[in-house]
């Protein structure tokens, strides 16, 4: 049957060819597939010449994208939901176990680890984050436990999938002020789903202490810095206290903004709602590369400042531009006679690379402001805490202290909406949003607040004064008691005490168990954690063996779960292997400790 016109034929072709396009785009998120389908249809209808040529051009685009996705995603299914990721994680862990029982048989953990890593590499998975042997009790045996644990692979696959999705979204132009600021809509949806899963899990887990008190983990999380309101309040308390210290010392406050060269920016913003692709952008560059650049430059700058005995202190905030590229805001305090030298060094180091792009084409002068900006805070007109408050809020929940929205951001977004997208951006790329510079540790502050609530007598005057300051929320006094700013952790008069006898589920040393605070001068010690906690699923949920110490670790533990199978254990001890579900004649085996953990 011959159609009456080329347009009708091409419409018919697009409908008939849908199965081919769907097959090629089966492993990409729906939002990505829509972009490719639009491009495919545009080519089919706009290509001049014969209908056959138009159809071939459209199919060529789809094939090209299919091959591209295969090259960047490998065996990752970018369209996979979390349940599919869990199944894939279990499959990888089980497949590695099967590989370890295949000939040639050996009890050499080093050889088995090499075999496991080689097999894992077939899945195009980056294992560069594996801990190094020889540190914190990490051995070939503990690494084998990781690689045969499906829960370890869940974390690896979730991180790998979300980052590959976001990198592809940037390439497709889905991350900018027009399409989706800071992060793609796809990653926002996944971030919401992740938070919903986490909230459900916390609500279904019950923590019971040795005094018989019971709470859901969600209730406990709501009273910690996991609560955005508490996190925001604590940050503002620290900044305000540090500002008081600076004023008392007659130091100068400077607000500095630094950003990356153009090669890290995928899009160039033309107006409030319009952006175009940046021709200087290096394809494949991600926000993680931009963060690494900023960190590297700051590391060199910090060394230069140290050589000149300049020791600024304050806070650093990392947040995204509209296209996801990170930039930093730094609130720093420094001696007044050193501020000029410090700012000159900042400008020199952060404008050293790709300086030609900073030159104004008309005047020929270098426009440093394209890469770095300075604002010296006038104490008479306002406070540093007040100036930085909006940046703190935008990167946490977009709310004021009264719970109301701070309004509209400079990008034109309602602040609460913007905050969610910024949080998703930080989650995808693993970028630390807030970092103190040269100031007292907040972990010690939190432990001292615990200590103060016990209403015990202190033999140590420093402990007494520091805990009293922390209990009153007086960060400035807390810093004064510790000796001021710029001190190294090892030089502080007070320190955190940790239980060093704990092992994680893989048999490695765990340092997550804080027990108390010690006066390093006279040795006076006081416990800050007075209860032992057991965590288990609430009765309404599926039964699970309890976890102790609220950190998923047990003293003397040397094995971890492989899955939901009750008989699955895989443990090592003194280079001996015990695999209960495999034929025992494959391995010579000795005694092994194993404990089932659900996580």
TrEMBL record:
<keyword id="KW-0235">DNA replication</keyword>
<keyword id="KW-0378">Hydrolase</keyword>
<dbReference type="GO" id="GO:0016787">
    <property type="term" value="F:hydrolase activity"/>
</dbReference>
<comment type="function">
    <text>Possible endonuclease which induces a single-strand cut and initiates DNA replication.</text>
</comment>
<protein>
    <submittedName>
        <fullName>Replication endonuclease</fullName>
    </submittedName>
</protein>
<dbReference type="InterPro" id="IPR008766">
    <property type="entry name" value="Replication_gene_A-like"/>
</dbReference>
<feature type="domain" description="Replication gene A protein-like">
    <location>
        <begin position="139"/>
        <end position="398"/>
    </location>
</feature>
<keyword id="KW-0540">Nuclease</keyword>
<comment type="similarity">
    <text>Belongs to the phage GPA family.</text>
</comment>
<dbReference type="Pfam" id="PF05840">
    <property type="entry name" value="Phage_GPA"/>
</dbReference>
<keyword id="KW-0255">Endonuclease</keyword>
<dbReference type="GO" id="GO:0004519">
    <property type="term" value="F:endonuclease activity"/>
</dbReference>
<dbReference type="GO" id="GO:0006260">
    <property type="term" value="P:DNA replication"/>
</dbReference>
